[in-house]
Design goal:
Layout: H1 8-14, H2 17-31, H3 39-55, H4 65-76, H5 88-102, H6 104-113, H7 118-134
Domain ATP synthase alpha subunit C-terminal: 6-131
Organism: uncultured Microvirga sp
Subunit structure: F-type ATPases have 2 components, CF(1) - the catalytic core - and CF(0) - the membrane proton channel. CF(1) has five subunits: alpha(3), beta(3), gamma(1), delta(1), epsilon(1). CF(0) has four main subunits: a(1), b(1), b'(1) and c(9-12).
Length: 136
């Protein structure tokens, strides 16, 4: 989606994702030809594969904008990094259930303001951190 059509909330959380995914695709192509990858390249490849998985949505079941903001926030801030790629979907589903059940005001604020204020951003960070610690 072009940035002119994005809400302020989406711009705030997804600003880094374009660059990170571009670097990931470039490095993934390069990494096919060599097995000696330094730690930072390996981290970039790991995050890129998780962000790519995170952006997949089931057909006919798109996420609401405020839910996308929450899961992309988790992805670009490294909460998916320790997970195997095949656990990203379970993390996403669990995180959304956690936020819907225990922190619905976060989603409501993002939905109505179409922005991610500092206060709501702090609540989202706390909610994601709390869920990530308990996720297994």
């Amino acid at each position: 989606m072009g940035s002119a059509a994005q809400t302020k909330a989406m711009k705030k959380v997804a600003g880094r994702i374009k660059g990170e995914l571009a670097q990931y695709r470039e490095m993934a192509a390069f990494a096919q030809f060599g097995s000696d990858l330094d730690a930072s390249t390996q981290r970039l490849l790991n995050r890129g594969s998780r962000l790519t998985e995170l952006l997949k949505q089931p057909q006919f079941s798109p996420l609401k904008m405020e839910e996308q903001v929450a899961v992309i926030y988790a992805g670009v801030n490294g909460y998916l990094d320790p997970l195997p790629v095949n656990r990203v979907r379970a993390f996403e589903e669990g995180l959304l259930a956690h936020i819907r059940g225990k922190h619905p005001e976060i989603l409501e604020d993002v939905r109505t303001s179409r922005d991610l204020s500092d206060a709501t951003g702090a609540k989202l960070k706390s909610a994601v951190e709390g869920f990530a610690k308990s996720f297994s």
